[in-house]
Design goal:
The structure is a homodimer of 219-residue chains.
Chain A lengths: L2 H15 L7 H8 L3 H13 L3 E2 L7 E2 L1 H24 L4 H11 L5 H10 L26 E2 L8 E7 L4 H10 L6 E7 L5 E6 L2 E6 H4 L2 E5 L2
Antiparallel strand pairs in A: 1-2, 3-8, 4-5, 4-8, 5-6, 6-7
Chain A binds a DNA duplex (30 and 30 nucleotides) through α3.
Chain lengths: 219, 219
DNA sequence: AAAAATTTTTAAGCTTACTTAAAAATAGTT
DNA sequence: AACTATTTTTAAGTAAGCTTAAAAATTTTT
């Protein structure tokens, strides 16, 4: 299966996990930086390969086979991120970019070797869960976006759901890192802004950021 | 530049280093597993990109630009081999196969990180020299094939120049490994066979193998 | 030096993964 | 409910990297 196909099913998988749940060709096209026409073509083709269900004008739905393929690629991506993060001093954004390419050129054998070397980690450096060799995510995700937190409570950063360089640069500068603690000092009523205290610094975040930073309540 | 192009210049580079020195399209085609016609087409195309000099029916000669590209790919290949060899318990053949794919999806930045992590090694696990970030091979190679050794002398294995699984399996079984010592117990007159002593085992090697196992005389 | 064998080149054609442009259907707005 | 805007689909076309078949040139053998 080609890189284009792997990226296509991965994009459907990722979009299907999001709030909007828009997996129509146009959204997948946007995710992949290709034309809508190309996405429609590809969707039809992958339907014949039993990777997804295609019905005109409807959302694209991965079959079990398609989901398995997507999870296999996601697994390799996250294992690479975990490995590069451990071995090298590189920004999360750079690591992501390398993993984006390496994920398609990695045998299952190598993926298993990486996993084993790392002690079969359950999460990558963004806090995203790493599917196991069977394509299963066994961890239960109880995290919520920062935008949904309560004023005065303390949380632990569990996921940074982004590919964006500016976002990661901002995070790196402000100690927003997987595992770190944040206190919600002020939650503005409309949830459009959140003020947090981290490392004795007060930061004001807008919804662009509070919707992709996920946290768990600290016990 | 595409994977196909990187592999093409790499094949010319490798063939140019061998005894036969046959870099006509047919030989490159054989190396890459494509048709002669495809190789001729590609050669013409790469000439327009100033990667090689093309003259009908003549050997293909890399330009400086083409050589630089080839060495950059070779560098990444050998760095990956060195890294995978260090981190994981995998056969040299499997490592080679993974590196064959990863080499094309590796930024210069990542290559430098791998190199740094490994202490800027000068050789990969086969004993092949690793070009530096400028595409220069600074080491001097004094090694000779086993077929050219002298009876009674002791040598150190310096390079195993092959991609072949059977060869590597044989090597692994018999302790034929980069850095190991061999005594030439009998060199048959026509050089078609060589009998060596390694790890207290006597092995008879034919020329297929003695021409790709390189050694240095032990001081 | 001719004849035979091989290699290289040319030519035509295929598949993949795109593109743009226009038609068709859906979704949003008044 | 009708009009508008957007999205999806269809259709036609392109570039990369191959293929096979046949012509042209080179190389090898006798």
């Amino acid at each position: 299966m080609s890189v284009a196909i792997e990226n296509f099913v991965k994009a459907i998988y990722k979009n299907g996990k999001r709030d909007h749940n828009d997996t129509k060709p146009g959204n997948i096209a946007k995710e992949l930086g290709i034309s809508n026409a190309a996405a429609t073509d590809m969707a039809k083709k992958l339907a014949t390969k039993d990777l997804l269900h295609y019905e005109k004008y409807q959302e694209l739905k991965l079959t079990d086979k398609g989901t398995k393929m997507a999870l296999n690629v996601v697994r390799k991506h996250r294992l690479w991120e975990a490995l590069l993060f451990k071995l090298f001093d590189m920004s999360l954004h750079d690591i992501h970019r390398e993993a984006e390419l390496l994920e398609h050129q990695t045998s299952d054998l190598l993926a298993n070797k990486i996993s084993e070397y790392l002690g079969n980690p359950k999460f990558d450096p963004h806090g995203d869960p790493i599917p196991n060799a069977n394509g299963e995510i066994t961890t239960v995700d109880t995290s919520i976006p920062l935008s949904n937190t309560e004023e005065g409570k303390t949380y632990t950063i569990s996921r940074l759901m982004s590919d964006d360089k500016e976002f990661f640069d901002f995070c790196a500068q402000n100690g927003l890192k997987y595992g770190n603690s944040v206190l919600i000092s002020k939650q503005f009523s409309n949830n459009k802004m959140t003020q947090i205290l981290i490392h004795n610094n007060t930061i004001l975040l807008n919804q662009d950021f509070t919707s992709i930073i996920y946290v768990n309540e600290t016990n």
